TrEMBL record:
UniProt name for this protein: Undecaprenyl diphosphate synthase family protein
InterPro entries: UPP_synth-like, UPP_synth-like_sf
Protein keywords: Transferase
Species of provenance: Methanoculleus frigidifontis
KW Transferase (keyword) present: yes
Listed transmembrane segments: none
Keyword Transferase among UniProt keywords: yes
Pfam families hit by this protein: Prenyltransf (PF01255)
Cited SUPFAM superfamilies: Undecaprenyl diphosphate synthase
PANTHER family noted in UniProt: DEHYDRODOLICHYL DIPHOSPHATE SYNTHASE FAMILY MEMBER, UNDECAPRENYL DIPHOSPHATE SYNTHASE
C-alpha cells in the first residue's frame, strides 16, 4: 500500500490525541537513527500534541556525548529540556520536548525521598501530592511508545502508572510516520480507566 495514502487515512480518523507522549529508546536505537528525535517532534507539533519525552536508556551517558550538539538543535523547533548527567538545559520555545539520557525511575524516587528528608518534611505530611512535588519529571505521559520489542525501563515509574503502553515490532531506525499514527489510533480506541 502507498504509505502516504495510509497516513492520510489514519490522520483523518484521529480525533482524540494524547496530550503527552513518552518514547523509550535504547542507546543503540539513538546511535542508529539520531534524526528521529527531530522528525517525531515535527509530527507531534503538526498534530498539536503538547509534550513529548524521549528517554534514551544507557548505562554510560558519556557514550552519547557526541550526540548532544545535535539534540540541542531541537531547541530550534521546540522548547527543549535536556537532562544529561547532572545537568539540565532549557532551550527554544514551542512544543515541550524533554530528552532524558540515562535517567532511572528508581534514582528519581530515591532522590525525591532524599530531598524530602533534607528539607525536614514530616513523615505525616508525605502523600502522593508531596512526592509528586519533589519529582524531577513533573508530568504524566498519556501514552508510552516502545519500538522494537517489549522491554521497558523503569523511567517515569511513578508518573506512567496510568499511561497507555504501545509496543511496536518496528525497530527505531525504521520507525515511520504511519507507525506513529497507528499508535495514536490505538490510543484513541482504548477506554482509559486510570486504575479503576
Amino acid at each position: 500500500m502507498i504509505y502516504w495514502l495510509y497516513e492520510k487515512y489514519l490522520r483523518r480518523n484521529l480525533s482524540t490525541l494524547p496530550g503527552s507522549i513518552c518514547f523509550m529508546i535504547t542507546e543503540q536505537d539513538h546511535i542508529e537513527a539520531p534524526g528521529n528525535l527531530s522528525r517525531i517532534t515535527e509530527w507531534c507539533r503538526e498534530l498539536g500534541i503538547g509534550h513529548v519525552t524521549f528517554h534514551i536508556s544507557t548505562d554510560d551517558p558519556d557514550r552519547l556525548a557526541r550526540y548532544i550538539p545535535e539534540i540541542r538543535t531541537l531547541g530550534e523547533i521546540a522548547r527543549l529540556t535536556l537532562r544529561y548527567r547532572e545537568t539540565k538545559e532549557v532551550l527554544g520555545s514551542g512544543i515541550d520536548v524533554t530528552v532524558a539520557i540515562g535517567e532511572s525511575g528508581r534514582q528519581e524516587i530515591t532522590a525525591c525521598i532524599r530531598k524530602m528528608a533534607e528539607r525536614g518534611v514530616d513523615p505525616e505530611e508525605v502523600d502522593e501530592a508531596r512526592i509528586e512535588s519533589f519529582l524531577t519529571f513533573p508530568y504524566e505521559p498519556d501514552l508510552v511508545i516502545k519500538t522494537g520489542g517489549d522491554y521497558l525501563t523503569d523511567f517515569l515509574i511513578w508518573q506512567s502508572v496510568y499511561s497507555e503502553l504501545f509496543f511496536l515490532d518496528v525497530n527505531w531506525p525504521a520507525f515511520r510516520k504511519v507507525d506513529f499514527l497507528r499508535a495514536l489510533r490505538d490510543y484513541q480506541a482504548r477506554a482509559r480507566r486510570f486504575g479503576t
